[in-house]
Design brief:
With 329 residues, the first copy, chain A, is of the alpha/beta class. The first copy, chain A, has helices spanning 18-31, 61-70, 74-79, 88-100, 114-122, 137-148, 159-178, 195-203, 219-226, 251-259, 269-283, 293-299, 320-328, and strands at 37-42, 45-51, 81-84, 104-109, 126-130, 151-153, 186-190, 208-214, 263-267, 309-313.
């Protein structure tokens, strides 16, 4: 099954750029301290973990949301925004909207982690639920926009979102430079729709970029190998990586990834759980399943490490019972 | 029961100073990036959490150990060091010793968390075990020093250790200043023997300092109220806060705390567990029981908050099974 991106949702035809990433990074720097870049030794080599789970909403998504919402015109801001998200982007948009006084409606899957639903509502956003298997979230958002007006803030298929997420790469470059290290020469990113991967590809133009997806939700990996956008085949395929459950990447993301020769890597449930436990024991960070995919690829030996490898720990929003089960397992 | 500090272990009669804290902070800054200072909103007020659990050894103890070991003479360094610790100081000393090529022996309780014992040995230190209830760790260390020579690196009763731990306060002041905030005007610290509390009292001379201890191990609280050093009465009193299980503070710590009018607050097991869960859900940080005591005091409403309150999240070394049990509880 191939889902076509609904054209009315493309908020802009412009391509994201490195200059845009740098502008986003400057705006983010005014608001948020850099997240730590934590060294982790693996078999005698040091990798650099970008702890995005320490962002105020517990994920890197606050970056793109802030860049997008601060670029709205006063008229657009007054009309409000509609976000589409499994939870982390939801919180990012809701957080930015609250801070800027912009009305926000977020389309979220009904089976999103309770913590993510509650946190989004607590930030003052209206949440509209959809069924992940039987409904298209983009179609639900399109209907809302047709009824109410406002601006779509897509979770990944948007040049502002891509540029905003890329600001993590600008920070990492500065943090490595402060330690006297050139790089990164390799970036390993958790990948859902490809917003973060594309942003980091722009931010780190000299680095090898690897996008890591969970088993069953490997559409970007297959798309990059095939040279065309393919979709997830079984939308009911079970995964714990709710943050990476995107049916299909968008042309704006795919174009960046393809131009940079990005390749995909797929990790299993057990590899992700192992990485979450490693983050617990060695970094003392709570990382959600989708946020641990990149580290999982490294720990599972699925990537030949570079000299200065950047790994995203992209989110930490996981229900405590679920986390306890994974730790004990 | 009152234990007297064995005089031969007093590594120096000099008092710790703010100038010493500043010198320690400069040395630490050459080696380690600042740990994040994370805002946390509580009932509409923001407190500032110093995430020391993100240090390379998972606790602030790396600060004092680095300050002490880098000030050894070449002859002292060659003769090695002996540390005494429930686990976090052990790792701090072992980490610094490994980096500096100094032989290290650490006296640790036989019931220390497995993770702490394993991590200390993995850093190359020799571990000598003692029984927390029937033996005095200071006596075991004194015997080792008499047999082997070397320099004692006490976990708290040492001017270098106090100054080194205080470097966290120098960082916090700079981090608040970068956000345009004067302060801290209040520092709430997890307290075992009083090394961190005394260091922060020196680092933040204008702040109110509150030392938080776990139920049953409240000797500093009682000592400050009584105006003289008292000991823990029941060394078998159960607590999950292994990092704060110190039988008695030392005169060098007590003098600083008393001069600054520090007062103690005591938290229960359930209050500590609640704080650990809050750190998980809201900050995505793994905090061990002893590292969550200060936050527990705030969340339990046992402290009237200041305008700019600094709270230490002082360590994150907790066994995964234990943590899972606490999360699920």
């Amino acid at each position: 099954m191939t889902q076509q991106s609904p054209d009315p949702l493309l908020s802009s035809a412009r391509a994201p750029t490195l200059a845009g990433v740098e502008r986003a990074a400057a705006k983010v720097a005014e608001l948020l301290p850099m997240t730590p870049l934590l060294p982790l030794e693996i078999d005698g080599r040091t990798i650099w973990c970008k702890a995005e789970c320490l962002q105020p909403v517990g994920a890197f998504k606050i970056r793109g949301a802030w860049h997008r919402l601060t670029d709205l015109t006063p008229e657009q801001a007054a009309a409000g925004v509609v976000g589409v998200s499994s939870g982390n982007h939801a919180q990012g948009v809701a957080w930015a909207a609250k801070r800027l006084g912009i009305p926000a409606t977020i389309v979220m899957p009904s089976n999103a982690p309770r913590m993510k639903l509650a946190a989004t509502r607590a930030l003052g956003a209206e949440v509209v639920l959809y069924d992940r298997v039987t409904e298209s979230r983009d179609a639900v958002a399109a209907k809302l926009l047709a009824e109410r007006g406002g601006t779509l803030v897509h979770a990944y298929g948007d040049p502002w979102i891509i540029e905003g997420q890329g600001s993590a790469g600008i920070e990492a470059r500065a943090q490595l430079a402060a330690r006297g290290i050139a790089g990164p020469d390799q970036v390993i990113a958790c990948c859902g729709g490809g917003g973060l991967s594309a942003g980091l590809a722009l931010a780190c133009p000299d680095a090898e970029i690897i996008a890591v997806e969970p088993e069953g939700w490997d559409d970007v990996t297959r798309s990059l190998a095939a040279g065309e956008i393919l979709s997830v085949e079984d939308l009911a395929y079970p995964t714990e990586c709710d943050a990476l459950q995107t049916p299909q990447t968008w042309p704006i993301n795919f174009a960046v990834l393809q131009a940079r020769g990005v390749r995909g890597v797929v990790v299993t449930r057990d590899e992700v759980r192992h990485a979450m436990r490693a983050a617990f024991e060695r970094l003392h960070l709570v990382v959600e399943p989708g946020g641990a995919a990149a580290l999982a690829a490294v720990l599972a030996g699925k990537v030949v490490l570079g000299e200065a490898t950047l790994v995203t720990l992209s989110g930490g929003n996981v229900d405590p019972q679920h986390y306890a089960e994974i730790l004990a397992g």
